[in-house]
Amino acid sequence: MADELRALVREGFRARCAYCGVHEDAVGATLTVDHHRPRAHGGTDDVTNLVYCCARCNEHKGAYWHEQDPPYVRLLHPGRDNLAQHVHESDDGHLVGLTPAGEFFVQRLRLNRPQLVAYRRARQAEVTLTAELAASRRRVEELERAVLDLRAALESTADEIERRSKGRPGEP
C-alpha cells in the first residue's frame, strides 16, 4: 500500500483506531490499515474500504465478511455507519450495543477488553476533570472581577469618608 494512501486513511480517522477509538499515541505506535471488506472476499484498496485500526481490533475482525461468514451479520463500518446509533458508552466505560449490529460490533471486536474499558474510564475522568477545571477557572475569573469591584467600592468609600472628614468644622 502506498504511503500516501496510508497517510490519507490515518488522517481520515484522526490517528485513532476506527473500531475501539484508541489513539496511536496511547499505544505508542502507528496503527494498521484494515480492509473492511477483506481482500479475500473481494475487498479493494479503495480508500472507502480502508479503516485505520489497532492491531488487536484488526486481529479480532480478521477476514470476517458477513456475506460468507456466520453469523452473517454486517460488521459496522466506522467511516460509513453512524456508530452512535448502534453503540453507547456507559458510565463504567463499557460499550453497549443498541442494535443487533451494534451488539455484534462490540462482540466481534471484543470492545470491552479490560484495557479498553480502563482506557475509556481514564478518558471519561479526563473529560470530567477538564470540565471541572474550566468551571473553576470561570469561577476564579468571577471572583477576581468581584474583588476588583469591591476594591473600587472600597476606594470610593474611602474617598467619600476623606472628603466628608475634611468638611467637618474643628477637624484638621
Automatic annotation (TrEMBL):
<dbReference type="GO" id="GO:0003676">
    <property type="term" value="F:nucleic acid binding"/>
</dbReference>
<feature type="domain" description="HNH nuclease">
    <location>
        <begin position="4"/>
        <end position="59"/>
    </location>
</feature>
<dbReference type="InterPro" id="IPR002711">
    <property type="entry name" value="HNH"/>
</dbReference>
<dbReference type="InterPro" id="IPR052892">
    <property type="entry name" value="NA-targeting_endonuclease"/>
</dbReference>
<feature type="coiled-coil region">
    <location>
        <begin position="126"/>
        <end position="160"/>
    </location>
</feature>
<dbReference type="Pfam" id="PF01844">
    <property type="entry name" value="HNH"/>
</dbReference>
<keyword id="KW-0175">Coiled coil</keyword>
<protein>
    <recommendedName>
        <fullName>HNH nuclease domain-containing protein</fullName>
    </recommendedName>
</protein>
<dbReference type="InterPro" id="IPR003615">
    <property type="entry name" value="HNH_nuc"/>
</dbReference>
<dbReference type="GO" id="GO:0008270">
    <property type="term" value="F:zinc ion binding"/>
</dbReference>
<dbReference type="GO" id="GO:0004519">
    <property type="term" value="F:endonuclease activity"/>
</dbReference>
